[in-house]
Design goal:
Helix content is 38%, strand content 18%. By secondary structure, the chain is an alpha+beta fold. Among the domains are: 48 residues, no CATH class; 134 residues, no CATH class. InterPro entries: Transposase_Zn_ribbon.
Length: 312
């Protein structure tokens, strides 16, 4: 089986052109993950890149128990048993590893994103399951982004998701103020980008309170950064237009793939966009990184995701 999707956005995350893009996951790529055993081997390597170590005592050897759908690993020292998917975003999931890895492949080869309707049809799961898979992966991405701070030369600019609906100082419900920050090189080109939705408590109408700026810096910029400049005035002549362009493209990407996102889950989609863009800056393939993040991120349940959406 070969999956083919057509999008109306550029292949490159940084590309401003509007073109028709065809991408596909080939039969050869899918064959690499055509069995549960092959997917289990890949997950084992991602979860324990240096070999098994017991979560309880740290012992490096285990017995493999294969009487269940997914293998168990019993520590040969303390006899603690651990499932292969324990401590990963797949924990508690009844979806097969093969479908999980096919989802990771499809997400990785979709530069313009893939929504839950497309994913559910591609891998043969319900919409709810596809939506949860995507949000669990975005949760892993968000955890990775939170551990990476902007450093060196850092520039921050206010931006907006959602088209302005009126010229007054009052904010429309569909307008979501953002702060977009980046580590840049000496030519002003972004090296690593973060886009964060501004929480309502840091807003006064459309305007950002000084505490909102400090909140962004505290959580996203290294404390020892000496070259830091923030522009929050909407029409300042000193605005960083490259950052405004990144925020604009992020909004276009979200609207094209997901047909617009409300404030509750907006941050998760912004984090996905930045993750893809930052890997593109580095010239890295997304699939390997997504697999590693999926194996390392803590479990997330559907009720918890609904109660506590990703906010940073």
């Amino acid at each position: 089986m070969v999956y083919i999707f057509i999008f109306q956005r550029g292949v490159s995350m940084a590309d401003e052109r509007t073109i028709t893009v065809t991408w596909k996951v080939s039969e050869e790529q899918l064959q690499l993950f055509s069995t549960e055993e092959a997917c289990a081997d890949m997950l084992f390597t991602a979860k324990w890149p240096d070999g098994f170590h017991c979560a309880r005592c740290g012992h490096p050897h285990a017995y493999k128990i294969t009487t269940r759908r997914l293998p168990l690993f019993e520590c040969s020292s303390c006899h603690y048993q651990e499932s292969l998917i324990a401590g990963t975003i797949m924990e508690g999931s009844r979806t097969t590893l093969r479908k999980w890895f096919h989802a990771l492949l499809l997400i990785s080869y979709a530069p313009c994103g893939i929504n839950a309707v497309q994913l559910s049809g591609a891998i043969g799961v319900t919409y709810k399951t596809a939506w949860l898979i995507l949000h669990k992966i975005r949760y892993a991405i968000s955890k990775a982004d939170a551990s990476t701070m902007l450093s060196g030369i850092v520039r921050v600019n206010s931006a907006l998701y959602g088209r302005p609906h009126n010229p007054s100082v009052n904010r429309h419900i569909q307008e979501q103020p953002l702060l977009v920050g980046a580590s840049i090189n000496t030519e002003g080109e972004p090296l690593y980008v973060k886009i964060k939705r501004v929480p309502d408590e840091y807003l006064q109408g459309r305007n950002l309170r000084p505490s909102g700026n400090q909140h962004f810096i505290q959580h996203n910029v290294e404390s020892k950064t000496g070259d830091l400049e923030c522009i929050t005035a909407r029409f300042s002549p000193r605005r960083f237009h490259r950052l405004l362009s990144v925020a604009k493209k992020a909004g276009q990407w979200i609207n094209a793939a997901y047909h617009g996102i409300g404030p509750k889950h907006l941050q998760a989609y912004l984090n996905e966009y930045c993750y893809r863009l930052n890997l593109e800056f580095q010239g890295e393939a997304i699939f390997r990184y997504l697999t590693q993040l999926s194996a390392a991120a803590a479990p997330l349940t559907y009720p918890k995701l609904l109660r506590f959406p990703i906010i940073s």
